[in-house]
Each structure stands twice: as C-alpha cells, then as structure tokens.
Design goal:
The chain has 260 residues and is α/β, with parallel strands linked by helices. It has helices spanning 16-28, 70-76, 95-105, 170-178, 192-198, 243-252, and strands at 2-10, 32-40, 52-57, 83-88, 91-92, 112-114, 117-119, 144-150, 153-158, 165-169, 207-211, 219-222. The chain contains six helices and twelve strands. The strands form three sheets. It has a five-stranded mixed beta sheet with strand order 3-2-1-4-10, with helices on both faces. A hairpin with a 2-residue loop joins strand 8 (144-150) and strand 9 (153-158).
Length: 260
Amino acid sequence: MIKTLVCISNYGDGQIHYLHRLLDQYNRMNRFETEIVLQTTTPVDLNRYSFRSSQMMFKPDIKFDLAMQHRRVMIDKQDDFDLFIYAENDILITEENLIAFCDSNEFLPHPYAAGFIRYEHFKGIQDDAEKYLPDAHPAGGSVFDGEISLSGRRCIRLTNRHQGCFVLTRAHLKQAIQSPHFNFYFPKDPLNREVGASFVYIGCSIQRVIPWEFVDRLMIHHLPDKYVNLNEPPWNETRPHTLTTLKALVTHEVRGSCNP
C-alpha cells in the first residue's frame, strides 16, 4: 500500500456534490492508503468514508487564500507519506491516474514529475465522448513547450502548466519545500487558486512532463465541464484542442526536441 496524503480545498457548499465524487474515488482505492485533510469554509460529512480524515475550518473571508493552506500541512507531514496530493474540489483523480504517475516514476529522473491534463465534456453534441482540453486552447498560442527524451522515453512539455492539482513523491515535495517560493503568495490575490495547484511546477524546481506512452492514463476530469461550454469568446468561437487533436499535433508538429 502506498501511503498517500490528500489535501483538498473546498470553498462554500456549491460544489459539495463534486467533492463527494472525489472522496468516493479515494475511498475505493486498493493500492493507495489515503488520508484526507480537507481545508474548507463549510463542514462536510465525512462519516461515510473509511479513510482517515480531518477538516481544517476557515472563515469565508479567506477566499482565494484557501488554496494555499495545504502547504503547512504538507511541510508538517513530509516524512509520513509516500505520495502527496493537492486538488481543487472538482478535479477527479482516479486510481488509474495515480498508478500511471507511479509507473512514470519508474523511469523519470529527479526532479522530473509526471503531470496530468484536465479534460471536459462538451454538452452540445449528444453522446460526444471526446475529451476537450480547457488548458490547451488555440487562442492561448502554442500548446507545446517542446519534447524531451528521458530514460529513452518520449515526454511532452505543455506551455500551460495548470492542472488544478499536483501529485508529488516525498522526494519531489522535499525539493519543493526547499524553494523559497513553496510557501510564498500574495494574500487575497485571485491567482492564488492557480498558485496553490500549479506553482510547484513553475517556481519550485519540479519539472512537469507528460510521458507520452501514458497520456491516456494521465487525463483527469474537470467535473463541472465549465470552460468548453462557456458561451463567450474564445470558447464559443473556437473549441480547445481535444485529446485526438493533441495526439495529431504531437505526431506531426512538435519541434524543438532536446535531451536533458
């Protein structure tokens, strides 16, 4: 069993139904012994679950800073777990996702870490099973930040490193904690949601890559399906890339390959 600490931020009760879908996933995992620490502004009933859990209560005026409150928890527990997860309350991480992450660690040299790609479903086409990628929109410019070979395996770098969560090994976390940026943020800044979830891949020396052979297993569902269904530019003018088009781009258009 892989001892796993999961910190989840939950603001208000508007997405409690998504939160419970996340918790149901962790409760069913067989290879990961999870402990949940919930940072929340409203009490959540956790009695139905078998994992160890606790809640840290905050006043609603904490707002965007809620996304940074897991940092102290992870610092205090850095020697107690094998995996460390932070996620927003609507990012569904499955056991298969975590197994793919662990499989990637078998060959990724430190400080590289497998990342994930968020997907959503488009509601405008009946029975559309395609995975739309809100963090890979053509309006944002180039999707790719290059390709790299690690231990002889093809890995992709994406320009947009946000994924609404992070998963780190103990070694990854300890390196991130050593960075002066790990616990730094501007209070009340709306960007703290992104800082809390993704800044470990930007300012803390952890190199996020997508091992291409595992790309299908590294897809995580952004449960609200919010962005791809927005009726405003650029979403109503051009849809983001899908997993299908991303694979086509990787096959035909990725340039700037390099070795570490």
